[in-house]
Amino acid sequence: MLKEVNKKSFLVLSLLVFLIMLYKHINVELGIGDDLWFLDMANQTNLIEYLVTRYNTWTSRLIIESLMLILLKLPSFVWIVLDSLIFVLIYYSMIKILHAKNKSIVQLIVFCLVILFPFGIFGEAGWYATTINYAWPLACGLYSLSFMNDFFYENKVSSLRCCLLIMCIIFATNQEQMCALVFGFYFIFLVYQYITKKHINKLALLVLLFSGAMILFHLTCPGNLNRKIVETNAYYEYYKNYDIKDKFVLGFLSTFSSIINRHEIIVVLFLSIVIFLGIRNSDIKVRIASIIPLSSYLLAILFLNFDSQGNVSTMINRFMSPMNEIPYDVLTMIYIFIILLETCLILYVLYKCLEWDVFLYSTIVILAAFASRFILGLSASIFVSGIRTFINLYVLLLMIDMILLFKIKPFCKEEK
What we know:
The chain is an all-alpha fold. It is about 75% helix and about 0% strand. The two termini are about 15 Å apart. The model has no long low-confidence stretch (mean pLDDT about 90).
């Protein structure tokens, strides 16, 4: 009886996600940003010729841009309905990954997180361009990851779900950030499955191989190389002088500088949950350690607001825009040390408060979340791309919140 109630609540909440997102979409201003350029291309060029040109001069996101040009020529209501369904897919996939199809409270909290997610991010570069380049790969990537539990327990996957998986994995891996995430998660999954079960799931291996092939496709695409040259000259002239260490430091520190400057409530929520776990521990050291990350985050925001010319503000703000060279001075070393120290404190609290498998699971997701933004250090458009490059990070942080609150394990035999 309870199981039936949970299923009904899941269906009702999924419908509510669709209706609420439909309402939000109806009220957005279309025909702005990059959408205008893509609409001109859709009306003026042949799709095949356009894709050949884009592949050779600008991007490897051929599937994503094909769909975008097709949708731009259709009535806007088609995109509104499809994009609203994409958020339903995000909600469904998060529920599957969190093993919450029979847990009403988790379903309700995830529902709130999805509908309260800062929707304006998805219109930053134009609603079509941003949603199809970021929200759609995110939804497809999460759906692809939702199969891991079935793969781990060798559950039978229906033909329909296999077809959906194929479509989603093709679309998700056409976006570089999500391609790297899918490859990384499935690589770790297969290593873990082999260690614990002494075999690997063949479908999961195919997903890994395909995502690996897509990484090579992105790396060898002539358009991506050409875009890097153009963007370097246009946005970040000195970027061509950076070595791999400089690019990593740039991606690493610019991520945290942006998070501090934007006063992200999603980050505050995550750090608050760390405190919630820590203060329930009997060890005073764990309690103190849990308070430090959020306290220092709020302190950094205060310095930015009330001492904008001081050393702390300088240390943070200089990684918010292009610079001639990475300053490896005392301030940068202190900045890196503080971030690493707080990371260690967070992991220490989680280690002391969680079971080993939950700790390992949450740690992997945390590292993956931030790595998805760190890799932007490899792009000269790191500062031009704006907040939309944080979408994967923020959604993964929300999933981490659920993992920590409900101590969710990576794999769970679900009731039929």
